[in-house]
Amino acid sequence: MVDVLNDLLTVLDSTLRLATPLLLACLAGLFSERAGIFDIGLEGKMLAAAFFSAAVAALTGSVWIGLASGIAASLALSAVHGLASITFRGNQLISGVAINFLAAGMTVLIAQSLFQQGGRTPSLSGQARFNPVDLPFAEQIETVPLLGPIYAELFSGHTILVYAALAMVPLTWWLLYRTRFGLRLRAVGEAPEAVDTAGVSVIRLRFTAVAICGVLCGIAGAYLSTGLQAGFVKDMTAGRGYIALAALIFAKWRPWYALISCLLFGFLQALALRPDLIEKYLFFKVQIQLLDALPYILTVIILAGFVGKAIPPRAGGEPYVKER
Amino acid sequence: MEKMPAWADVVLVPLISLLLAAAISALVIMGIGEDPVAAVKMMVSGALGSTYGWGYTLYYATNFMFTGLAVSVAFHAKMFNIGGEGQAMIGGLGVALMALFIPWPHWSLALIFCSIGGAVFGALWALIPAILQAKRGSHIVITTIMFNFMAAALLNYLLVSILRPVKSMDPATASFPEPTHLPTLHDLLMPLGIEFSKSAPANVSLLLALAAAVFVWVLIWRTRLGYALRAFGHSDTAAQYAGINPVKITILAMLISGGLAGMMAVNTTLGEAERLVLNATEGAGFIGIAVALMGRSHPFGVVLASILFGFLYQGGAELALWTSIPRELIVVIQALVILFTGALDNMVRMPIERLFIALRGSGDRDG
Q1: What sign results for the dihedral spanned by CA atoms B272, B276, B280, B285?
Q2: Fewest CB atoms within 10 A around its CB: which of B15, B127, B193, B291?
């Protein structure tokens, strides 16, 4: 029994850690897409942020300066996306594709030129990365049966960014559904002409949304290279931006559901790391490749409308042209 | 009245976009402490200075022609098929199954049937996203991205667990039998008395790619289906009013697009590796996007853009070999081309349009 609990806690613990970058990127996408700007460049922004936070943290020895640089890099790419899709009314999907490739190429080029380690940054340690935070009383109640280990193992001992990501969910909900800004943001994704008629700037709102998206992607990327791992390696986002996009559709563009879908996809990733546990408890072998593909398969099923229809914001992907 | 002459739209705008992309690439090269002029010289001599270099340039170009044509056909129907990568991977499976399990007596038969195999598999991989787009309105971009990842997972599973020969460590199929090996450009040009490098991988698939370009041209501009496709791309409501079935057009466009992407595998799998390996596509599916944007979705433009990207690819490989500039430089250039010719198109176009309108205005006054 203790054995089962331990295994379960290990998997859930890594679920939480793996879900964090997905959740941050998913909420990032939520802000952007709710404002009517499709963003398939989440992957690229995360990758750029992962590199710049690790590189600057390695050079300065401070993870906080690293985080700030990661966010700045992600914001710079957001600015390109905003310029292309809002100012010049270009194709948002093509802009996203370009951003992903730009990040994939530039990170390796700069990493190679700065560190000459085949597109990596040096390993980070000490103050140069986010270290686990012990929640209060974790040690004292660890001996309490059941609740003790759950609190100490599962909830305590994560980096500050994990808790920040979890806190972003109610914050996003509050911002979207309980503030004037949120109302306008949602409106600009559904009926920008109505927002315009009300005398509110569509362009400013959309740029704000794209900037929030950049900040959140920046934190997600920084978490990858300075929290989850200790340094940047080439292509380290490994499709997480696209999984976050899938989670966003799965959640039908709503914050609390985003948490649930990111935890689900994080759980699948955690399972893929421990195929031995699946065999131990389910008595059959599951192909790791199937677990890898499952988030995508689930998303296609959702998109197909078999489990309720996923309807994106109505004005999504359409550049806004003022009526003359 | 047109805002600017056709030549400006077809030649001037893409050329300026390309120059912008090139200028920023040069800045990037300088930024990492290298000399852009020396880099370009090395790329030109490495990719175009010998028949060996040309052999690689044309080999890569062949891949990009197929994927670029695939993206173009979908673009004409106003769909963005970002799944060329996955369709080419699964196309590779079709090619490999044809080449492995049927004993072809001669390469020409193998070429024909492997092409069909690749096209059918690639088309089938595009079918579900197409149906979902046509009948359920699920966005084709999202579904094709998802299908790229599924294709990678599926191929990984098949190559590791099913198709890998016993005792082999590589996740790859067995080598294809001797008679299926395609003639290279060396073999083809020899009878004509032209000496071409023996070790370069460009092969007869290049001719297949050029034929595909002609096919796409005829399809888009000389057939009823192509007309329906373009009409649907311009305005789906008008097309429906004219009696064009949107479901049928969407599915057909995606099938043709997926089929073309799948045929790319003939070049990489049957022509070069002579077995199916993991990551045989090497991102060519995505370069198809850059190539289609640059070539303005016209087969002739796609062929030219493919050769340019083939040059960049081979030149980039030479740079990575002889200098400290990593191969990823090509990815940056590719991103800049997509950015300037695709997403930031209006940034270049609007000032030029204004310029032409101003010129015309002053001309009118003079006359």
Answers
A1: positive
A2: B193
- Per CATH, the number for B35-323 is 1.10.3470
The count of other CB atoms within 10 Å of the CB of residue A282 is 9
Check which CATH number belongs to the domain holding A224 and give it. Answer: 1.10.3470
Dihedral over Cα of A234, A239, A242, A243: its sign: negative
CA distance B218 to B225: 10
B2 Ramachandran zone, left/alpha/beta (phi>0; psi -120 to 50) = beta
What is the C-alpha end-to-end distance of chain B, expressed in Å?
A: 18
Say if A314 falls within a structural domain.
no
ipTM over 0.95: no
Q: Does A286 touch chain B (CB under 8 A)?
A: no
Residues of chain A contacting B329 with CB distance shorter than 8 Å: 105, 109
User: Tell me: the pLDDT tens digits for B302-325?
Assistant: 999 999 999 999 999 999 998 888
Which of B82, B157, B332 lies nearest to residue A105, judging by beta carbons? B332
Residues from chain A that touch B326, judged by Cβ atoms under 8 A, are 108-109, 112, 119
A window 42-101, beta carbon within 8 A of B: 80, 83-85, 88-95, 97-101
B77 with B227: CB under 8 angstroms? Answer: no
In a domain, A309, yes or no: no
What's the rounded mean pLDDT across residues B186-212? 91
Q: How far apart are CA B357 and CA A119, in angstroms?
A: 48
List the domain range (segments joined by +) for residue A71.
2-129+137-303
Yes or no, beta carbons of A102 and B339 under 8 Å apart: yes
**CB-based contact A292 B149, cutoff 8 Å:** yes
A249: nearest CA in chain B? B142
